[in-house]
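ok trying this again, last paste got cut off
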Amino acid sequence: MPWNEVSAMSLRLEFVTLATAEEANVRELCRRYGISPQTAYKWIDRFRTAGPAGLEERSRRPKRSPRRCDSSLEKRILMLRDTHPKWGARKLRKRLLDLGAVSVPSASTITAVLKRHGRLSPEPDPAHRAFSRFEHDAPNRLWQMDFKGHFAVGEGRCHPLTVLDDHSRFAIGLLACGDEQAKTVQDALIELFRRYGLPERILCDNGPPWGHPETRYTALGVWLLRVGVGMSHGRPCHPQTQGKDERFHRTLKAEVIQGRVFHGLDGCQRHFDQWREIYNHQRPHEALGLEVPAQRYRPSERPFPEVLPLWEYGVGDTVRKVQTDGSISFRGREHDVGQAFRGERVAIRPADQDGVFGVYFGVHRVAQLDLAAHDRDR
């Protein structure tokens, strides 16, 4: 979906959060967000002076909200809970502290307030226990990507495309798509790459458009290799491999999709944009020590290449062009590389073992030719 559907306030808050981080490259962020340095430093100054309220359009909103100052703390708790009915006491307490409230009570006291006013959801299943997940040690080492189950919007269906940074849980993208085609995903990723830079790798499941039951690579995966991003796949029938994105999907369903009627993709995207701002910048995350994802995320230093590089191979390489059926010819035989590489140039290099050759697409080894095994099978 186009980025111009994101609210101006959301983008300003996201920009200043990233721009005020330690060692942030403000000039590069200005280029990615399409704003001038003068405007950028104006927002940064307002944010440091007045926080998120300083980013409001001054002609339309006051700098302070008198209603918040006049409300009792208990009313503030209930109001915050009503705004985020799926948040527990620890999230509510951390958010109140982030909003500048003083003398915030303990989580147990907030739980008592919610219980007294009938705001508590049913108790969770005591048999359920969270388990520890592996986490990459820096942003953009790994992104997780998947489609959330589609649902009806007017006369069509919405297929939410979610992209999550593994380290920070920062929601890189939450897009209301009309289908799950490879071109739809590629167009969305181009916009995300232009704004946040390139990750080292993206983790997906084994289904289309990023996976195929019979082949290792798809056209989308080959394009990612050209861009400079690796793609890996979770274990079949093991959705916990993408546990962070699966958990994100459950939260998205509970806080945005469930119980709401959408009349089109545009309306759906507006709700996604509003909630994504809350998720990234306001909602305390249990796995992050009640920090918000934006506090741990930094854009990648690798920019998106607007012109894809042409692979250069060594003088000792045997270079072949992959035919339309996915095959290459080598030493008088046809070898299958995969239709995803059709039209591309690959290099063949000897491996350590006699009669075995590696097939390389750029720096990536994408196939192996075992001529000795082929002779034995004849």
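PB: full thing came through this time. The chain is about 35% helix and 15% strand.
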